[in-house]
Design a protein that fits this description.
By secondary structure, the protein is an alpha/beta fold. Mean pLDDT is about 90; it is low at about 1-25.
């Protein structure tokens, strides 16, 4: 940054600083009006204790009261996206934000895209009306219209407001970028349309200048933009906001009407201090980190607007390769920002109630995840997606092969690092999934899956689409960047273009078509769950907290009842109840319930109980005689029901294998569906083996298998199962030798 620009900005900031309480003096016949406000607050009432951290609701109220208390004719406003992004707001349906706006004296609030996340076609009017009544303000928006029902063609919100100050009439109006329509779940904008921001603004300006006879007009656009450095010498990027102001000015000129006098904008993460096409513009940095101001002086028919920004925390931006503090902020700014005691008490009341709900453990993590770097962030997103995939498969009980979501719906958890076995809280889940997207399942062909995976999102070459369940290889690009899809595999096998697969996704994607250029409209047999993503993650974590350490438990021959088996939960705080039953030698399906405790969000505590089927494998009476080289193979084959022992509960490792036994083992290994028609116990298996070419029809079932026939049978079985068969050197095939060969082929 040039020193001249920085010096000018610091001087401008200090001129309007609430620390000194000084504002410029004006002639006695002039009228001064000061507009203050924040934007993109995102429900961030919680303070973050660091020099650059969020100030929190109490400090925002304190700073705002200090500013408005020393300014002439103060009016307080707020930009859009007021509520979404913080658990304390979400748990209370935005009520704490309304309390903060009321304490600040907010009069007008623009609508942002994420404000629609809280309601659907049946609840939106009640939702927005309740917020206005609780907060004591008016929503302003001129370009959102009903398309259905009795109100079709009418605006959803009040388009503008007029306030008279010492004889000066000042008008406010809001608009939202129509492009935001596609950034909102279709569930939440059903029955609405976003009309042209410029065309609707022009009509409002004409009304305010004409019928309402306004001397000053302030636009409140919720339109994205970027400014590299918040000072009057740095231009605003040639984006949607610049285009909006320029086109509105041209439209007003063509209609011979005076345009807007200033813009108090929102939809950003960065602060703005600029003049765009002659219009003074401010944007307050998100989360209440900056209060923006428009100082307006009306004298002798002329309007003078001076924009300024007031940091409540240290504001650091890039100046080339260097980080610099701007707007006169320092490491002490947040610490020195005044805190409003009255609202602090309100915040504490909500926070005390929320703390137990938000921070008590709900379950335990089954792996490590964090956002320490780009690779960790990618792995964390995969963890989040896996929870949604797990929910559909194991909690809802609907088999899906993959779960898709736009990564914009997976929010940051840094600096949190979670290790395997760590508790998972609702606060953490709300941080990672703050937006109310619902879970959806659908059928999609392999060809269509490849199409969406190779699509280019509106975010550019770094794909906004994420998935869990499929192994995707791209021609180029880090992680899962947009690129040519080389391979898409499911369980190690390439998916087939004409095959149909059941997948899951969120409503942002499913309710397209083409949200952020990611088109899921090819999906068929669509099923929508009345479950939001954060709830799906919570339910998955709870379900996993009632998991078992092992789904297969080995016990010795002397253990005859399943209640004596060491069946242990993965969560040390959980308890296990066993449906006690007698154990046969070999594999036994045992019903088990695991109950894990958690904190109930509506009461004090609760628990989740998950039913499991445990494979309890009882050892053989002669297990000690099984050679060490074959012991693990015998145990694994027994656990999978391929070996079951004889009537005496013995494995008899050195007994020669018969053709009947080989037929049964081969059929079990291949998962053959056998039909028993009575007669000899091995007849169904033998018939299957003869049909498949595993054995000859001429063999004597009771005779010992020859090495040559066993080798040939293993080779044919390898073709059927897709396994591989090693060389067999034994002259005689004992049960131990058969176990080693089968295990190598199958596992």
């Amino acid at each position: 940054m040039k020193k001249r620009a920085l010096s000018f900005l610091m001087a401008l900031t200090l001129l309007c600083s609430f620390w000194s309480g000084a504002f410029p003096a004006h002639a006695a016949d002039s009228t001064e009006i000061n507009i203050f406000g924040i934007g993109d607050f995102g429900g961030k009432l919680d303070p973050v204790d660091s020099p650059t951290g969020d100030p929190g609701g109490a400090k925002i109220v304190g700073a705002m009261k200090a500013l408005t208390g020393s300014a002439a004719n103060a009016i307080v406003v707020a930009g859009g996206t007021s509520y979404t992004g913080a658990a304390i707001s979400k748990l209370n349906h935005g009520t704490p934000v309304n309390e903060m706006y009321k304490a600040m004296g907010v009069q007008y609030v623009n609508i942002g895209n994420h404000d629609f996340d809280w309601s659907d076609i049946d609840t939106r009017e009640t939702c927005f009306t309740t917020w206005q009544n609780e907060g004591g303000f008016s929503f302003l928006n001129a370009n959102v219209y009903y398309t259905d029902g009795a109100k079709a063609g009418q605006r959803l919100f009040t388009p503008y407001a007029v306030q008279e100050v010492s004889g000066v009439r000042i008008g406010f109006f809001g608009v939202i970028d129509p492009g935001n329509y596609d950034a909102i779940s279709a569930l939440n904008v059903k029955g609405l349309e976003f009309r042209s921001a410029v065309a609707e603004s022009l009509e409002v300006v004409k009304t305010l200048r004409g019928e309402e006879k306004c001397d000053v007009i302030v636009a409140m656009p919720h339109i994205a933009s970027a400014q590299a450095m918040p000072d009057l010498n740095t231009p605003v990027g040639e984006g949607a906001l610049t285009q909006y102001i320029t086109e509105l000015n041209a439209a007003c000129k063509s209609e011979s009407v005076k345009g807007i006098d200033a813009a108090f904008a929102s939809q950003c993460e960065t602060a703005h201090l600029a003049v765009v096409d002659g219009v003074p513009l401010v944007k307050a940095k998100n989360f209440g980190q900056i209060i923006a101001q428009l100082n307006i002086v009306v004298a002798d028919g002329s309007v003078t607007v001076t924009p300024s920004l007031h940091p409540l925390t240290q504001i650091v931006v890039k100046d080339g390769d260097n980080d610099v503090s701007v707007l006169g902020s320092t490491e002490k700014t947040r610490e020195e920002t005044p805190e409003d005691a009255e609202f602090k008490a309100v915040y504490d009341r909500y926070n005390d109630i929320a703390m137990k709900v938000l921070d008590d453990p709900r379950g335990i993590s089954d792996t490590d995840f964090s956002e320490a770097d780009d690779a960790s962030k990618f792995a964390y997103q995969k963890w989040y997606l896996r929870q949604n995939w797990y929910y559909v498969n194991y909690v809802a009980g609907e088999p899906i092969v993959a779960y898709f979501q736009n990564c914009g719906g997976i929010r940051h958890i840094a600096p949190t690092e979670v290790k395997k076995g760590d508790p998972i809280s609702l606060r953490l889940i709300q941080k990672m999934a703050p937006f109310d997207n619902y879970v959806v399942t659908m059928n999609m062909t392999g060809k269509d899956i490849k199409t969406i995976l190779s699509g280019v999102s509106s975010y550019g070459t770094y794909n906004s689409l994420r998935q869990y369940g499929l192994d995707v290889t791209y021609a180029s690009g880090e992680y899962e960047a947009n690129a040519e899809v080389v391979s898409v595999k499911l369980n190690g096998e390439e998916i087939k273009d004409d095959a149909v697969y059941r997948i899951g996704c969120n409503t942002f994607l499913s309710d397209g078509p083409g949200k952020d250029n990611m088109d899921f409209s090819a999906g068929t047999d669509v099923k929508k769950y009345d479950v939001i993503n954060s709830t799906a993650v919570l339910e998955a974590v709870l379900h996993q907290s009632a998991a078992l350490k092992d789904e297969t438990v080995f016990v010795d021959y002397g253990t005859t009842n399943s209640k004596d088996a060491a069946i242990a939960p993965a969560n040390d705080a959980a308890t296990v109840s066993v449906n006690a039953s007698d154990l046969s030698v070999g594999a036994n399906a045992v019903a088990v319930k695991v109950t894990a405790p958690y904190t109930d969000p509506n009461r004090t505590d609760g628990n989740v109980t998950v039913s499991h089927t445990v494979n309890v494998v009882r050892g053989y009476a002669d297990q000690a005689s099984i050679p060490n080289s074959a012991l693990d193979d015998v145990k694994e084959l027994t656990a999978n029901g391929i070996f079951v022992g004889n009537e005496r509960g013995e494995f008899s490792p050195e007994t020669l294998l018969t053709y009947n036994e080989l037929a049964v083992l081969a059929a079990r290994a291949a998962g053959a569906k056998l039909v028993s028609g009575g007669g000899h116990w091995a007849a169904p298996a033998m018939n299957w083996c003869v049909e498949q070419g595993v054995l000859s029809a001429s063999v004597n079932g009771d005779a010992a298998v020859s090495a040559a026939d066993f080798t040939a049978a293993m080779a044919k079985l390898a073709e059927i199962t897709g396994g591989s068969c090693a060389d067999i050197n034994a002259q005689q095939i004992t049960r131990s030798a058969a176990a080693e060969a089968l295990a190598e082929l199958l596992y």
